[in-house]
Amino acid sequence: MPTSIPQRNSALFIVMSVILGCVVIGGTFTLGTIVGERLCERACLAPLHQMGFPPNALRGPQFMGEDLGRRFFREGHGFAGEVLRKDAEKLTILDRGGEERVLFLDPEMSFGPPHNPQSPEDLSVGASVMGFGIPQSGGALRIRHLVIEPN
Fold first, then answer.
1. What is the pLDDT of residue 123?
2. Residue 110 in contact with residue 144, Cβ under 8 Å?
3. How many helices (H) and strands (E) does the chain have?
4. Are 101 and 116 in contact (CB under 8 A)?
5. Could you tell me the pTM of the whole model?
6. Dist. CA 114–CA 54, nearest whole Å
7. N or C: which end of the chain has fewer CB within 10 A?
C-alpha cells in the first residue's frame, strides 16, 4: 500500500526547491560578473602594461566620463593631456577634463613604452602625453613615467 506524502511536506519541498534554484542562479550570475570584470580589466589595462606602466600604479576601468588619467591610475596619480608649456623642471598640461596640471620632471623618470623608447628631447609643446607620478602639494605631480602618444 503506497504511503501518501502529506500536503505540507510537498509545499515545503517546492519552497525549498525555489529558494535553492534562486541561490544557484544568483551565485552563477555573481561569479560570471566577477570573471567578466576581471577579463575586461585585463583587456583594458593590457596596452598600458605594454607601454611600461607598472601594475601597482594602475586600477581597473571606472566610469567612462572621467578623465583618462583619473580613470586608470590609483588615487589620481595618472595624467593624460596636451603639453601647454615646457621648461627644464616642469611641464604644464591641459588634461582631458579641461584643467591645467603642473607636472614636475624627475631625473629618475622613465620615458616611452619598452618596445619604442622615447626621450625628453621628443617632448614638445602640443604633444599628447600620458603617464603617472607621485602627488605633490597643490595638486602637482612628480612624473615617474611618461609616454608621448603618437599623433
1. 84
2. yes
3. 2, 6
4. no
5. 0.53
6. 12
7. N
